[in-house]
Amino acid sequence: MKSHSKWITYTIPTEWNNHSVTDVLKGPLLLSNRMINRLTHMKGLRLNGKKTWLNKKLKEGDRLQVAVRPHETTELVGEPVPFTTVWEDPDLLIVDKPAGIQVHPVKKGETGTLAHGITQRWQEEGLEAKVRPVHRLDRHTSGLLLVAKSAYAHQLMDRELREKRIKRHYLAILSERFDKEVGEKGTIQAPIDREGNHPLRRCVKDSGERAVTHYQIIAHAADATLVHAELETGRTHQIRVHFAHLGHPLYGDTLYYGSKNYIRRQALHACQLSFTHPLTHEDIAVSTPLPKDLSQLANTLGLQIPTEFLDKANKAHP
Asked: What are the tens digits of pLDDT across the range 134-148?
């Protein structure tokens, strides 16, 4: 069983010398007034190992401890759901999600989601926390998902996501041969909105929200193209909608009229994830290879998968 510490420690740098505890909590630690009030009520602030108060002046080198990792109860009942842990620290978790599994319940009483599986594993380790995904993956999209272990970590990573400092990369297998050379790069800038009254489908529409996808052609075959795509924005179904709009829906993506040959889910895999950790300031970069069903599809279609998308499998650095 892993030990759990509710405290993080911030060492006061030169530029925050002679500032108050409140200044530092709101400044570099980015805590809201609500969270600060909760910390004072729960005695969740320490300075150099001793109790402190909000207007206390700080000195360079002081160690301010903040209890931003509290134990939390969850309504989810843990259950065995398959996933692979790729990287983890006391605040964040990156998992490799299999296709066909919902990230979290979307209706009351739903079971068998990734959140249920993570909850069970955390409970086995003695960690009482709620599963807070930082971004989304569709049920039938496989690959890397970033999860926060506390409300504070989620707040920090949500800020990183909104300010486009989390880089998310995907591999997609498109129908037909793309009319560009292997290695050629491009950008799709096309706003996305709901398609009429359809409950799920999105489409490119002038009234929609800004959506930008950067891509590079990785391999060609007679009836398919392998692309590496990076999201600049994160609209629902963005990659699927953008390539369908260009006339190249993803294999298996029946919602957007993709071919049903050879595969029963959209051929989309979240292969790379990178960001700078907001608490440790480490550069984190993680990758995972195409899963078996997409590798088999690529082989069937005659697509060659470059080793750069295989050799870095499930590696994280630093």
From this structure: 999 999 999 999 999
